[in-house]
Amino acid sequence: MARFRKVETRIWNDEKFRDLSDQAKLVFLLILTHPHMASLGAMRETIPGLAAELGWEEETLSEGFREGLAKGLLEHDPKACFVGLPNFLKYNAPENPNVVLSWIQQADLIPECEAKKALVLRVKIHCQARGKAFVEAFRKAFGEPLGNRWGNRWGNPVRTVCQIPSPSPRIRTRARKNGHHSPLQRRKKLSSTVGSDATRSIRRRGTTTTKAMAGKSAATR
Q1: Distance (Å, rounded) from C-alpha 122 to C-alpha 119?
Q2: Topology of the domain comprising 9-90
Q3: pLDDT digits (tens, 9 = 90+) for 155-198
Q4: Where in the chain is the domain with CATH 1.10.10.10?
Q5: Which residues contact 100 (CB under 8 A, 6 or more apart)?
């Protein structure tokens, strides 16, 4: 789990956060900075457990927690003991692709449920927005397609995001005018050249053999 967490100072300008009660604000900050919070933005935790950490009655914490849920600031699956922050990666993005590679270990510590599938999808979308290196790190960590490694644990398979586009017709036409050929065209041209050279060589050998035989015939006479 991450030892450090970024708390955006503009959180106090956020309308949703500002409208929360004082106890709901504390519940949100507790979850955001909780030692068990994974770098993906979720953890295994229960309402009674959070209440015990603050020394609160369970109902008191539940009231603040429900406020966060209603504002879309928190996610919860009580059956799976899943607690998550939908906007976590927006403010705690991975520093580099190597961080994404390490996430699979933390993902195994998060309970399996529909909320976890949504979490992995958010991670995928985040990596797509960060570029090819992050997409490749996500593919190596979570698999491609995702289902091949994890069955149906994460939901639908992840399709390849970074593909090398084929040259446009204009570029191919310009290349032909400049004498440039694709690898396949070069192989075909090379095969044609080699075949022509071999044919000419056979013809030369045949001509030489015919001349030699004619010379021997003349000497015999």
Answers
A1: 5
A2: Arc Repressor Mutant, subunit A (1.10.10)
A3: 443 333 333 334 445 545 555 555 555 555 555 555 555 455 55
A4: 9-90
A5: 94, 123, 127, 134, 137, 138, 141
pLDDT in tens, 80-92: 999 999 999 999 9
CA–CA dist 117, 216 (Å, integer): 88
